Amino acid sequence: xxxxxxxxxxxxxxxxxxxxxxxxxxxxxxxxxxxxxxxxxxxxxxxxxxxxxxxxxxxxxxxxxxxxxxxxxxxxxxxxxxxxxxxxxxxxxxxxxxxxxxxxxxxxxxxxxxxxxxxxxxxxxxxxxxxxxxxxxxxxxxxxxxxxxxxx
Length: 152
Description:
The chain is α+β, with helices and mostly antiparallel strands and 152 residues long. 30% of the residues lie in helices and 24% in strands. The chain contains three helices and seven strands. It has helices spanning 4-10, 60-82, 107-122; strands at 28-31, 34-37, 43-44, 47-48, 90-99, 129-135, 144-151. The chain has a five-stranded mixed sheet, covered by helices on one side. The protein has a two-stranded antiparallel sheet with strand order 3-4. Helix 2 (60-82) packs across helix 3 (107-122). The radius of gyration is 14 Å and the shape is globular.
């Protein structure tokens, strides 16, 4: 059976550098057999992929891609805490915040960007509980923010 890192490679993805916090917090905290990530934005190469509201300046498809990047950034924060991703026993909970226009109701579809990536990388251990929440605004005008809770 392949490792999560090998599955990422097969998908043409790499674990990025841990995104630098935009305020006074750390990217992840380990407590006993759980790792909690801070909210991860769709940062790529030190910059937000997109800004704006989903259903406005950002399409649902673009937001889905942002959600995947948020998931990769959360995976990077977890890997920095535990060393190897094979230490992850289970993705327990995913919370996805979507900055969206008042009439946009596709938050679950955007959140699938996270859920599907975690399933591809972690297999059965990637099946999780999830919340997909529409909000008025996110830090730096990001369209998406993601946090994970994992068991190690």
